[in-house]
């Protein structure tokens, strides 16, 4: 088991930019990068949407929890799925080896970015809208975050810079 908290874990809504920012941040900090949605799809041999369509959103959450608790990574930037924050076990496992960074994006921005709600593989009940999911998840992200970055007024490079600055001010970093 890795003892250092040298991972950076990105949480936030679908469309917040976790995967895009994650790659840029990993490059900036000379860390490895992993997108846990890709891990899940690789392990399962199917898309997130296929899991939701055939087994339901709770099955996707259970698979996500299993994979997140088994990651065992060191020196990585980890982009999690938007539903990772539902799992206390997964978040505790990620926190043991990392700093949790919430990429906060307002609903209007998300509504512009997420135009493929029915095919994106979002772990949500069939009756839930993007606004419903947003309202439900925001308190979870805030609860689990060590650092919150308000991404709305920033471009990608500024988000990365803000994360690096915030990490530099934490005693458990670098």
Structural class: alpha/beta
CATH class term: Alpha Beta
Q: Write the H/E string, N to C.
A: EHEHHHEHEHHEH
Read across the widest sheet, the strand sequence of neighbours is 2-3-1-4-5
Strand content: 5-15%
Taking the sheet with the most strands, its summary is:
5 strands, parallel
Describe this structure in words.
With 174 residues, this protein is of the alpha/beta class. The chain has a single domain (7-168), classed as Rossmann fold (3-Layer(aba) Sandwich). The protein is built from 8 helices and 5 strands; from the N terminus they run E-H-E-H-H-H-E-H-E-H-H-E-H. The chain has a 5-stranded parallel sheet, with helices on both faces. Helix 1 packs across helix 8, helix 2 (36-44) crosses helix 4 (57-69) and helix 4 (57-69) packs parallel to helix 5 (88-96). The mean pLDDT is 91.
Q: What is the gist of this entry?
A:
With 174 residues, this protein is an alpha/beta fold. The chain contains 8 helices and 5 strands.
Ordered list of secondary-structure elements with their pairings:
Elements: E1 7-11, H1 18-29, E2 32-35, H2 36-44, H3 48-55, H4 57-69, E3 76-79, H5 88-96, E4 98-104, H6 107-113, H7 130-144, E5 147-150, H8 156-168
Parallel strand pairs: 1-3, 1-4, 2-3, 4-5
Helix pairs in contact: 1-8, 2-4, 3-4, 4-5
């Amino acid at each position: 088991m890795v003892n250092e908290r040298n991972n950076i874990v990105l949480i936030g809504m679908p469309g917040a930019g976790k995967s895009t920012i994650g790659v840029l941040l990993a490059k900036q900090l000379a860390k490895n990068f992993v997108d846990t949605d890709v891990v899940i799809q690789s392990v399962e041999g199917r898309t997130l949407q296929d899991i939701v369509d055939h087994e339901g959103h709770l099955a996707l959450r259970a698979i996500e929890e299993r994979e997140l608790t088994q990651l065992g990574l060191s020196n990585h930037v980890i982009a999690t799925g938007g539903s990772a924050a539902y799992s206390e076990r997964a978040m505790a496992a990620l926190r043991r080896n990392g700093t949790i960074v919430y990429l906060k994006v307002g609903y209007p921005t998300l509504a512009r970015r997420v135009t493929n709600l029915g095919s994106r593989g979002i772990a949500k009940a069939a009756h839930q809208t993007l606004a419903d999911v947003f309202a439900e998840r925001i308190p979870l992200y805030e609860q689990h975050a060590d650092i919150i970055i308000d991404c709305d007024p920033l471009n990608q490079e500024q988000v990365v810079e803000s994360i690096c600055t915030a990490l530099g001010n934490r005693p458990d970093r670098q």
